[in-house]
């Protein structure tokens, strides 16, 4: 099967959606398919970091977005890209975005009469509102998103709460649940020591956040909670992994609150083994995001045996039982700080349960996706044959 996975991000700028696209490409190629990662070109396209030995990558020219790490793809005017993609006889295309690269997937699907699958990943209303501060324009933006998904042959979301978000935007078509995967990782004590030494973590408690350094991830509440926690505890480090538009403001907040000695900023870590060692060394993963619809990083932490503290009733808490395979708190700095105090004494037991109940291997997820792909390809062939009778 020849498959195109279309995404709006590519290394060195990468987020959860980019990680999903990467895993689809890697796993599909391992299963003897011919799969391509198609995305806007960045100034430094780090192909090896995202696809390792699988180098089926097609990039198109792009423009920078103001105040964002993302870029706006311009596939329609990239003659080299158009020539390259024309030579590929896709059986199906899969869009992980409703924007420029997703529209390119739609163009290819329409032109070649092949199926288009699209996965709804993000709370776009929140994104539009944060940029425009206008409910009118946020609704117009989500109206556009819904119109894109209405043009697709099949729409996927990663869980039921995310499907409800899309329905609330006005989409009334059928939605299939295809979750994201996480491969288990079994750390050794030496792995943990390597992370501890590399990032100067000492023997105290290690609290960890991995993700975009963007305040939409509720990072202000993490910093405010750490300030409260530090007033009662001294032997700990808060580690922030990632990059993003609010990184400088985060540094400023940490400094203003006198938390420099308690905080480590690692920057972006592209080496998964290095990141997994840090997950394993952490005693507690803190992810209070109300924006995310499905948290890959929470599952990566679980794969390393580290439990996560999350906000109660957020999308990412489906199948999480407080005190059993994760920890829940309210959306206040005070509750997050109290949640850390409550979680740490029981983190090892809950981390074991998290590893046993949360991750699903990517191989299993891609098997599920392949079944849907094959069904849609057969359906499209039948429809074309019926039209020609």
Written account of the structure:
The chain is α/β, with parallel strands linked by helices. It folds into 2 domains: 2-181 and 362-388, Rossmann fold (3-Layer(aba) Sandwich), CATH 3.40.50; 189-357, 3-Layer(aba) Sandwich (Rossmann fold). The protein is built from 15 helices and 15 strands. The strands form 3 sheets. Strands 3-2-1-6-7-8-9 form a 7-stranded parallel beta sheet, with helices on both faces. Strands 12-11-10-13-14-15 form a 6-stranded parallel beta sheet, with helices on both faces. Helix 2 (47-51) links the parallel strand 2 and strand 3 (57-60). The longest helix has 27 residues, at 362-388. The protein is globular and about 75 Å long.
Summed up:
By secondary structure, the chain is of the alpha/beta class. The protein has helices spanning 16-30, 47-51, 79-86, 100-112, 124-132, 135-150, 160-168, 189-198, 219-230, 247-256, 272-281, 296-303, 333-343, 347-357, 362-388; strands at residues 2-6, 34-40, 57-60, 62-64, 71-73, 92-95, 116-120, 154-157, 175-177, 205-210, 236-241, 263-267, 284-286, 308-311, 327-329.
Residues in helices, as a percent range? 40-55%
Report the principal-axis shape.
globular
Structural class: alpha/beta
Poorly predicted runs of 5 or more residues: 45-52
Q: What is the count of helical runs?
A: 15
The major beta sheet can be summarized as: 7 strands, parallel
Query: What would the CATH topology of the largest domain be?
Result: Rossmann fold
CATH-defined superfamily of the largest domain: Glycogen Phosphorylase B
Distance between the termini: 26 Å
Estimate nothing, just give the exact number of structural domains: 2
The CATH class of the largest domain is Alpha Beta
Query: Would you identify the CATH architecture of the largest domain?
Result: 3-Layer(aba) Sandwich
Task: Write down the secondary-structure element order.
Answer: EHEHEEEHEHEHHEHEHEHEHEHEHEEHHH
* Overall number of strands: 15
How large, in whole angstroms, is the Cα Rg?
21 Å
Q: Provide mean pLDDT, rounded.
A: 90
Q: Largest sheet, order of strands side by side?
A: 3-2-1-6-7-8-9
Beta content: 15-25%
């Amino acid at each position: 099967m020849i498959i195109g996975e279309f995404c709006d991000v590519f290394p060195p700028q990468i987020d959860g959606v980019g990680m999903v696209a990467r895993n689809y490409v890697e796993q599909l190629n391992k299963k003897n398919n011919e799969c391509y990662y198609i995305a806007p070109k960045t100034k430094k396209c780090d192909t090896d970091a995202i696809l390792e030995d699988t180098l089926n990558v097609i990039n198109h020219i792009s423009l920078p977005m103001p105040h964002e790490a993302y870029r706006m793809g311009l596939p329609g005017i990239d003659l080299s890209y158009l020539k390259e993609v024309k030579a590929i006889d896709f059986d199906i295309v899969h869009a992980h975005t409703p924007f420029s690269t997703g529209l390119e997937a739609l163009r290819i699907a329409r032109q070649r009469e092949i199926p288009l699958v699209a996965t709804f990943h993000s709370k776009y209303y929140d994104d539009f509102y944060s940029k425009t501060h206008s409910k009118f324009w946020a609704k117009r933006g989500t109206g556009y998103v819904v119109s894109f998904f209405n043009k697709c042959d099949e729409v996927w979301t990663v869980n039921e709460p995310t499907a409800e978000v899309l329905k609330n935007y006005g989409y009334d078509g059928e939605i299939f649940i295809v979750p994201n995967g996480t491969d288990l990782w079994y750390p050794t004590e030496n792995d943990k020591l390597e992370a501890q030494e590399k990032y100067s973590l000492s023997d105290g408690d290690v609290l960890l956040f991995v993700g975009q350094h963007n305040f939409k991830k509720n990072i202000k509440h993490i910093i405010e909670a750490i300030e409260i926690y530090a007033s009662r505890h001294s032997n700990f480090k808060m580690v922030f992994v990632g990059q993003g538009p609010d990184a400088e403001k985060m540094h400023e907040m940490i400094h203003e609150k006198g938390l420099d000695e308690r905080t480590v900023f690692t920057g972006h870590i592209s080496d998964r083994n290095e990141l997994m060692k840090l997950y394993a060394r952490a005693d507690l993963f803190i992810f209070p995001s109300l924006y995310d619809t499905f948290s890959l990083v929470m599952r990566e932490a679980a794969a390393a045996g580290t439990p996560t503290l999350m906000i109660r009733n957020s999308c990412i808490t489906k199948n999480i039982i407080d005190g059993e395979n994760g920890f829940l708190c309210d959306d206040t700095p005070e509750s997050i700080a109290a949640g850390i105090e409550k979680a740490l004494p029981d983190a090892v037991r809950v981390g074991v349960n998290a590893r046993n109940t949360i991750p699903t291997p990517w191989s299993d997820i891609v098997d599920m996706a392949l079944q849907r792909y094959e069904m849609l390809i057969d359906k499209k062939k039948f429809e074309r044959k019926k039209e020609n009778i």
